[in-house]
Amino acid sequence: MTALFPSKLKPTAGETKASRQANRRELRNRMRELGKTVVEAKGYTIGEPMGLDHGRAYYAKRNGKAVKIGFRASADRWIAATTPSLAAGGELIEVDEIFVVAFKDPKVRDAIEVYRFQASVIADAAKKVFAASGTTGQKWIPLDDTKDEGVHSMAGGSLGKHGEVISTVDVVWGDGGASGVEVPAAFKLTIDQAKAGLAAQFGVSKDAIRITIEG
């Protein structure tokens, strides 16, 4: 599988703070859509949003069994966790699995890894980080071993070794703003996967895509 991202989203020297922030938001959105495509290719059926954490958690099924899943996108291999997500009714408490979509090498950005985590693993690490810092709000937890730079980031350890990489996707940066996901010809595309690919290509929600089959 290959993902095509618009080159305008790749960090460049001289970009303004506003454009950098906007590009990061769009890049994370596209990465999450890519994550959905990968997850559906692995046998999940993604249903309605759960209404948690900005719509990044969903009711789903895996092999016919109900499961609740969430998505995180990380361009720099750090994962955000918030105090509300750890409280009763929060995403990290309510979902069963979290899929993290991260660049394999943040400096090169030529491949993306999709990790599957038990949500409890991320929740436990986040709780340790918040406890060590003595503060609330938002904290960042690394996928990889790194130095604690005074923010207690390593209090919960590195997360990557506790997750499973379910797919590695090559990334191609293209001109003209095009984006999408290319899949092998032998791959059987479902309606949900087609919607996810079209949503990523046109920069809209999957719910905005309507597909009619005639014949």
Instruction: Summarize the amount of helix as a percent range.
Output: 25-40%
Order of helices and strands: EHEEEEHHEEHEEEH
Derived from helix and strand composition plus strand pairing, the structural class reads alpha+beta
Residue-averaged pLDDT, rounded? 84
User: How many β-strand stretches?
Assistant: 10
What separation lies between the terminal Cα atoms?
Answer: 29 Å
Label the overall shape.
globular
Strand content: 25-35%
The multimeric state of the shown protein is single chain
Radius of gyration equals 17 Å
Low-confidence segments, ≥5 residues, pLDDT <50?
A: 183-188
Count the DSSP helices: 5
What kind of sheet is the major sheet?
A: 8 strands, mixed
With strands numbered from the N-terminus, the spatial order across the biggest sheet is 2-3-4-6-7-9-1-10
Task: Give a quick set of tags describing it.
alpha+beta; 28% helix; two-stranded antiparallel sheet; 10 strands; 215 residues
Kindly summarize this structure in a few lines:
28% of the residues lie in helices and 31% in strands. With 215 residues, the protein is of the alpha+beta class. A hairpin with a 2-residue loop joins strand 3 (57-62) and strand 4 (65-74).
Secondary structure: elements and pairs:
Blueprint: E1 2-6, H1 17-41, E2 44-49, E3 57-62, E4 65-74, E5 78-82, H2 83-86, H3 91-94, E6 97-103, E7 111-118, H4 119-133, E8 138-142, E9 164-174, E10 180-182, H5 191-202
Parallel strand pairs: 1-9, 4-6
Antiparallel strand pairs: 1-10, 2-3, 3-4, 5-8, 6-7, 7-9
Helix pairs in contact: 1-5
